[in-house]
Write a structure and sequence with these properties.
414 residues, alpha+beta, Peroxisomal Thiolase, Chain A, domain 1, 14 helices, 11 strands, Thiolase_C, Thiolase-like, acyltransferase activity, transferring groups other than amino-acyl groups, acyltransferase, transferase
Length: 414
């Protein structure tokens, strides 16, 4: 477990030189699987977003020390996705670029790596985030076909071989075949969260995102940009991954899978395409760039739980973060909680006695869709913008992975 905390602004309101700040937080719209981004690989989404964000911030390439991006799914003929990103973004040869693969927490781990580099004074300005293309993941069908017959029956909740293969590739500790949906079902049973409660939470998540979309809440955080090598728009502000109320209502009647009687396609997150990026720097660099920080990374914890107790990972991590920072549920204004299935959000709110109106206020992963390698960064982007928009200060992002890792990070917005 890592716990690191900063010291805020100094008495004059100037960023402390040795603290770590975020000066920009942006994301693409989220595309549904085989939707608006189906023709673009993860590296194109990531590179295009970074280029658009750098232009918006007025930051030149010579100021970049490192780039860390999360990505879980890659095509079988790509040996090093970081090289693709580096070339597509046209970074200088002197800028090291890295791809991190830590399942759902990949982009949050990228942010932690950038944070540590700045704290250790080996970098002053780091680009951190995540990118994912579920649409262009070619290994899924092969993984699915190579699974045993008993396991194929377990993931029958997904209605196409491609989606079933994605479960094997993204949600399973392959080849051990520990599927987190099945573990989620056990979690729901232990916490006594029935199907109705999960469907209600799913609908609440979707309704919040639709309201935010209609109120144009996401406009500041979404960047529409041109491809960095071709003069064409590869992203629009229309977020395909939002499921409408009319299309979701029939899903509430979905017949459950025999091994997951309460977790269905209506109350779990769907695979998606997208990217998110955060521009992280020291207080010293913030002053040099003449950029006022929009947020500070206050601290974080990393914990590990049993593979058969995945659902409790976020609860454990948030509790440890509370103790480390001397915070409690009443001192935190907003939470962005990873929501692979609705039971997870319900259980966390119950276990920690969190006011539901402070959690995923513009919708969770069920509503946004899950571009796996980018979701953690997307959640941080969403949290920062929501805190600033509502005039609030303190927030927590939490995430877990099928490998048993859980992370909770504290953010202070300005």
């Amino acid at each position: 477990m890592d716990i690191i905390a900063g010291t805020k602004f100094n008495m004059l309101g100037v960023p402390c030189p040795d603290d770590v700040y975020i000066i920009g937080a942006y994301r693409t719209a989220v595309g549904s699987m085989n939707g608006q981004f189906k023709s673009y690989g993860a590296h194109k989404l990531g590179a295009g977003l970074i280029r658009g964000a750098l232009s918006k911030l007025g930051i030149t390439d010579d100021l970049i020390d490192k780039v860390y991006m999360g990505q879980v799914l890659k095509s079988e003929n790509v040996e090093n996705p970081a090289e693709l990103l580096h070339k597509e973004a046209d970074f200088p040869a002197s800028v090291p670029s890295y791809i991190l693969k830590h399942d759902c927490a990949s982009s949050l781990k990228a942010l932690i790596r950038g944070y540590k580099d700045i704290k250790c004074n080996v970098a002053q300005f780091v680009i951190c985030g995540g990118q994912e293309s579920s649409s262009q993941f070619p290994c899924n069908f092969k993984l699915y076909e190579n699974s045993n017959e008993a396991y194929k029956k377990e993931i029958a909740i997904f209605d196409t071989p491609v989606k079933k293969g994605l479960v094997v590739g993204g949600l399973t500790e392959y080849p051990a075949e520990i599927n987190h949906l099945k573990e989620g079902e056990q979690f729901s049973y232990v916490h006594k969260i029935d199907r109705v409660s999960q469907d209600e939470q799913s609908m609440e998540s979707i309704e919040r995102s639709l309201k935010a979309l209609n109120d144009k809440v996401f406009e500041e955080q979404i960047i529409a940009f041109n491809n960095v090598t071709k003069d064409e728009t590869i992203v629009s502000r229309v977020n395909e991954s939002y499921r409408t109320i009319s299309s979701c209502l029939p899903l509430l009647k979905v017949h459950p899978n025999y091994l997951t009687p309460t977790i269905t396609s209506s109350n779990s997150a769907q695979y998606a395409d997208g990217a998110a990026v955060l521009f992280v720097c020291s207080g010293r660099s913030s002053l040099a760039f003449l950029k006022q920080p929009i947020a500070r990374i206050v601290g974080f914890v990393e914990v590990s739980v049993s593979l058969h107790d995945l659902g409790n990972g976020q609860i454990t991590a948030i509790r440890k973060l509370f103790r480390a920072l001397h915070w409690n549920t009443n001192t935190v204004d907003l939470y962005e909680i990873y929501e692979p299935y609705a039971a997870q959000t319900v259980a966390i709110m119950q276990a920690l006695q969190i006011n539901p109106f402070r959690v995923n206020v513009t919708g969770g992963t069920i509503a946004f869709g899950n571009p796996i390698g980018a979701t953690g960064a997307r959640m941080v982007v969403t949290l920062i913008h929501n805190l600033r928009r509502l005039g609030l200060t303190k927030g927590i992002v939490s995430m877990y992975t099928p490998a048993g890792l859980a992370i909770a990070m504290a953010i202070e917005a300005y």
